[in-house]
Amino acid sequence: MTKHRFSSMCLIISLTGFVSACSGQSGTTDDDSNAGKTGSELDQQSIADIQALADDAVAAGIPGVSVAIVRGQQKLAFARGVADQGTGELVSTAHRFRMASMAKSLVAAVVLQLVDEGKLQLSDTLGQRLPGIFPEHEQVPLELLLRQESGLFDFTADDRYSTTLFAGDLEHAWTPSELLTMAAEHPPTFAPGERFEYSNTNYAALAVIVEHVTGQSLDDVVRARIFEPLGMTSSSMVTTPDMSTPFAHGYMLGLEQPLDATRFNGSAVFGCGNIVSTPVDMAQFYGAVAAGKVVSKRLLSTMLSKDPNVAETDYAMGLFRWEKGNKFFGCDDFIGHPGGIPGYDSLGYSSVDGKRQFAIAVNSFTFDDKAGDPTAQAAFAALVDAIACK
Question: Is the peptide bond before 246 cis (omega within 30 degrees of 0)?
Fold first, then answer.
């Protein structure tokens, strides 16, 4: 694989927003004045160090990397590597990626908006909102779905689901009803509210409820309530194998040859993983959440708070909540979400105080949920640590 290394001279300084440059491989915006300084801004050497770590990730075998960083008024976006190994097309900050479970943050935000408008209540039960679908879970309230404490079986663990994927049928179309029915055929994994256990079924169910309450498709709802108000022009909630151009091809690594998994069907992860976006858009989204621009101030503390009645949980509502000194991002309190899906690995976070945001996406994934082999994963982890806390 050809290594693409670019000088920090490719940086563009601007106050207007994220700007791309250098054949689509690098772009920054950066306020050189003292106005709006938060103390967390990156100097030019730190930027160069971060970009070098992205080069290292590509050299270690990750095809392409796209990064967005916001520090107060300073904004930086750059990309390294290739979007398509077949054609050699370079990845740019405009290329879309499947951002997987970051979709949960968007669904949670919409649910809380509907709660704020009185169209839903956190105490509403599955029996009230999806009658007859989950006969053994009728009394589970929506709050426990948001907190991943419902006990609903994860449909992705059903043999019928996994067999379809492992047979190579990545484009298989699933209906939300099929996904929920698969989950409902399994007994509860624990008593509701007993503990945290990550289940994609929680957010597929919430997404169906959103569609029922609004009478609109999930994509239309999220677009009208979040994407358009925030100017997230590269984002969508897809339910097909298609993505708008430009997009990065996604590759499964660990086989004799990389497997192109680009056309994984978004319907297979409806509501829980079907977002297509860019790191620039997702860094902006998590910053807007922290600033109270997505969920009302009245409900924001609820969204960002972990359940005090459940031990050993780092999940709030559609967000992981990591306190300062945590095992991942020790420099600050962070909220956000990782995302992994065939062909793609990503994550997006904001500090709770809103002073720093970051998002990263790569177009590779392994069967054991890594960005690449141990060397590539170590390079990816070093890059993530730097963009969060350098």
Answer: yes
